[in-house]
Specification:
With 357 residues, the protein is of the alpha+beta class. The chain has two domains: 86 residues; 236 residues, Bira Bifunctional Protein, Domain 2 (BirA Bifunctional Protein, domain 2, 2-Layer Sandwich), CATH 3.30.930.10. 41% of the residues lie in helices and 19% in strands. Strands 1, 4, 5, 6, 7, 8, 9 and 10 form an eight-stranded mixed β-sheet that branches. The chain has a two-stranded antiparallel sheet with strand order 2-3. Strand 6 and strand 7 form a beta hairpin. 31% of the residues are buried. The structure holds phenylalanine.
Length: 357
């Protein structure tokens, strides 16, 4: 068959010159597609004499194979080149030093909450939680603070709003963590041993008061728990927390939800205008406590004829200020980065009782 060499030379040259995969595909169609030049040539075989066909057939088939192979090779080469090009563009120097980013810190309140939790967990206390917006029943009534009780007014409570015409008592921002006592007893009954750390709210603002602050509630109910257990537990806690033996002083007090009730002071000194806990002849009030009032047990669905126990409520911010020498409570919640960097903790300083906190 005439002209096969020219045909081969022409197609191979065009294939070699294809600049991208689209151009290559056009060439393939023009050569081997249904109406491609080589396909049309193959169709001519039918009109040939057997002798002619015997010579032209294999030659055309060989040409077709050769062109196919050239197409495939060119396609692979173009693919490699495209990848090469992309890699050049996406090149990344993994040895470059990383961009400097300031690391955040753990807030002293978070840190101290973890410390408190670790110590009480070690004494077998579980952690309970309750809502920050609560009904007046949980925050007051169930804790033996009826509607007319002066404690309601003393608490500087934030009230939520009810819809117009809705005369039910409004919900409150909880004024203490004590409602968690009720919620926990309701759900779990007795015996129990829990702490409940969390945010509480009172309309108050000065160097030692902020409208939002943190408390940790403690509750231990069993058949024969006494004030002695309370005193031991608290002294054990404060000594672990401050890392030194801390004496406590119980002062008779009054809370509607405990009977008897005591405010607890810890021993400290005021040398040179700074407080040091665990030495000296001064006392600092840090919490309220007492034996859970029978009416409170009842409200929580626990039979006061069978069970009794102690409860306490302690200011987390307060003991954080004492332990870490932070003078002004308000700064806790100003989100001043300089303050946070100064008083904050590394995320790696995970409190653990065995590590001495
Ligand atoms: N709820 C009391 C307060 O906020 C503290 C307290 C808790 C007192 C538990 C006695 C028992 O002041």
């Amino acid at each position: 068959m005439d002209g096969l060499d020219d045909l081969r030379g022409g197609w191979l040259q065009r294939i070699a010159g294809a600049s991208d995969e689209a151009a290559l595909e056009e060439i393939r169609v023009a050569a081997l597609g249904k109406k491609g030049e080589i396909s049309l040539k193959m169709r001519e075989l039918g009109k040939m004499s057997p002798e002619e066909r015997q010579e032209a057939g294999p030659a055309l088939n060989a040409l077709k194979d050769e062109v196919n192979a050239a197409l495939a090779a060119r396609k692979a080469a173009l693919g490699d080149a495209a990848l090469e090009e992309r890699l050049k563009g996406e090149w990344l120097d993994v040895t470059l030093p990383a961009r400097y980013r300031r690391v955040g810190t753990i807030h002293p309140v978070s840190q101290v909450t973890e410390e408190v939790t670790a110590i009480f967990a070690d004494m077998g206390f579980a952690v309970a939680e309750g809502p920050q917006i609560d009904s007046d029943w949980y925050n007051f009534d169930a804790l033996n603070i009826p509607g007319h009780h002066p404690a309601r007014a003393e608490m500087d409570t934030f009230y939520m709003a009810r819809a117009e015409g809705d005369n039910r008592p409004p919900h409150v921002l909880r004024t203490h963590t004590s409602p968690v006592q009720i919620r926990y007893m309701e759900a779990n009954g007795a015996p129990c041993r829990i702490i409940a750390p969390g945010r509480v709210y009172r309309a108050d603002y000065d160097q030692t008061h902020t409208p939002m602050f943190h408390q940790v509630e403690g509750l231990a109910i069993d058949r024969d728990i006494s004030m002695a257990n309370l005193k031991w537990t608290l002294e054990e806690f404060f000594s672990a927390f401050f890392g030194t033996k801390v004496k406590t002083r119980f002062r008779a007090s009054h809370f509607p939800f405990t009977e008897p009730s005591a405010e607890v002071d810890i021993q400290c000194s005021w040398e040179g205008g700074t407080v040091t806990v665990g030495e000296g002849n001064d006392w600092l009030e840090v919490l309220g406590s007492g034996m859970v009032h029978p009416k409170v047990l009842q409200a929580g669905g626990v039979d006061p004829a069978e069970w009794q126990g102690f409860a306490f409520g302690m200011g987390i911010d307060r003991i954080a200020m004492l332990k870490y020498g932070i003078p002004d409570l308000r700064a806790f919640f100003d989100s001043d980065l300089r303050w946070l960097r100064h008083y904050g903790f590394s995320a790696l300083q995970v409190p653990a009782v065995h590590a001495g906190l």
